Amino acid sequence: MSSSATHPADDERCPCGSGDTFGSCCGPILRGQRRAATAEALMRSRYTAFSTRDLEHALASWHPNSRPQRRDLAASLAETRWLRLDVRETTGGGPFDDEGTVEFVAIARTDQGRRELHELSHFSKVDGAWVYVRGEIAATRH
Ligand SMILES: [Zn+2]
């Protein structure tokens, strides 16, 4: 979709860290070939979109009411290099739910150094598709 996205090959490791291949994990979701069945799958596909600079999926997976401006998100994607995702906990978010949360820690490198994002993300369904609504910064436990 996005000409600037740098997706891995289908037989390479998925950037979201699921341990699966890109072609059987986030790949088909980023390409719009299938929908994320769970809030966690959508969250993973968003992480992969951010880490591969797939602006189209990053925007499309955002709730229309909270979606950022395209140019602001493009700038954010360009300045951050995402290195790792750890999903900590989920609530709801299953195929038969309408809402769900995913708590995760994501590690990034920016011009200012290493950044750790610990977030509790809220997801809901719009027209049967999971979308990201908002996130709260969670307290980091070490
Ligand atoms: Zn994945």
Automatic annotation (TrEMBL):
Residues 38-135 form the YchJ-like middle NTF2-like domain. The lineage of its organism: Bacteria, Bacillati, Actinomycetota, Actinomycetes, Micrococcales. InterPro entries: NTF2-like_dom_sf, SEC_C_motif, YchJ-like_M. SUPFAM superfamilies: NTF2-like, Sec-C motif. This is Preprotein translocase subunit SecA. It comes from the Bacteria.
